[in-house]
Amino acid sequence: MSIPEPLLKVAAIFFDVIFVLLVFSFIFIFGLRFYWRWKAKRLKGEPVPEELLVPKLKKGKGLIYFYSPNCRPCQMVEPIYKKLSKELKGVHFVKINVLEKPEAVRKIGILATPSMVLVKDGRIKEVILGPVSEGVLREKLK
């Protein structure tokens, strides 16, 4: 029993379409990640927008934590953030809900949550995208 030739052609076209969709989705995902990292690197040295610059961030070190209450990775980072905010006394911590202050978040250029912005003397020192471990965050805050 053999498979009819028209059916083989349809199957070949179907698998070609699936392959092309997979390739484009990988390109899109990696392109988006590349863009986020590029944008985060461009923020280094920029002043923190006035909407986000609370008085305690003008001098010394600080961390602005952007989160969303319904974000799973944010819920994983939350205990780390709370622990470090209690332990590290020389660092000022600010927590911003992206759903409550979308204009301020848009001004600084945050595209995804969780994101953390390290601030030193009112200027952006580094932008951390995505969830990070306690050790990495502690090392960056020293």
UniProtKB/TrEMBL annotation:
UniProt keyword Transmembrane present: yes
Any GO MF annotation of the entry: protein-disulfide reductase activity
Keywords: Membrane, Transmembrane, Transmembrane helix
Keyword Transmembrane helix (UniProt): yes
GO cellular component: cytoplasm
Spans through the membrane: 12-36
Residue ranges annotated for the Thioredoxin domain, each copy included: 42-142
Name of this chain's protein: Thioredoxin 1
Native source organism of the sequence: Thermovibrio guaymasensis
